[in-house]
Amino acid sequence: MGEIDGLSANSPSNEGDPTGLETTAYFEADQLTFSYGSYAAHVAVDPETGKIEILRYVVVEDIGRIINPLMVHGQAVGGAAQGIGATLLEELVYDDNGQLLAGSFMDYLLPTSTDVPPIESIVLEEAPSPLNPLGVKGAGEGGIVATGATLANAVSNALAPLGVQVNQLPLSPDFIARLIRP
Q1: pLDDT at position 62
Q2: CA atoms of 125 and 119, how far apart (whole Å)
Q3: Contacts with 106 (C-beta within 8 Å, 6 or more apart), sequence order
């Protein structure tokens, strides 16, 4: 028997292949693919405390072709949860000397299950990528990227009757209360 790609037909990597033939192919993209999506939030803001309650949060993303739907759903929900935490809770606060005041996770808030609402994830296959044989694009990144703007716009809309316009993050209750009562 002969050799193919430096492997003899008797090598262990060819066990189970009665022909002794093996082939390998690679695909390398020279252009990046990008998913796109849209995000919507319906919020309620307590004008006394500045606390934001997310009543409904929807993530829609077109990723070309879906290979593993459950994993894609998990990525979208996980990205949105991470974005919600970053938008509503996570803040690095320093004193006048530049010393970080959050010395532990007791001082630095991270989202818990009570902070993250049920997230509706809709994944589409409307526009497969022409740049690869499977038509796939990235998945999951969009959930976190648009969260800050989505929630800031929803809060601005909720507080519009009070003349409040949100233009920075994070949207901590203290920050929102200061916007409402300057």
Answers
A1: 92
A2: 20
A3: none
The DSSP-derived string for 39-65 is EEEEEEE-TTT--EEEEEEEEEEE-SS
Sketch the domain layout of the chain as residue ranges: 1-30, 32-180
- The CA distance from 137 to 29, in Å, is 12
In this prediction the pTM is 0.78
- Is 141 an active-site residue? yes
Residue stretches of the chain with pLDDT short of 70: 1-17
Helix (H) or strand (E) holding 147: helix 147-159
Level-2 CATH architecture, domain 32-180: 2-Layer Sandwich (3.30)
Q: What per-residue confidence (pLDDT) applies to 2?
A: 44
> What is the pLDDT, as a whole number, of residue 176?
95
- What's the token pair of residue 156? 């601005």
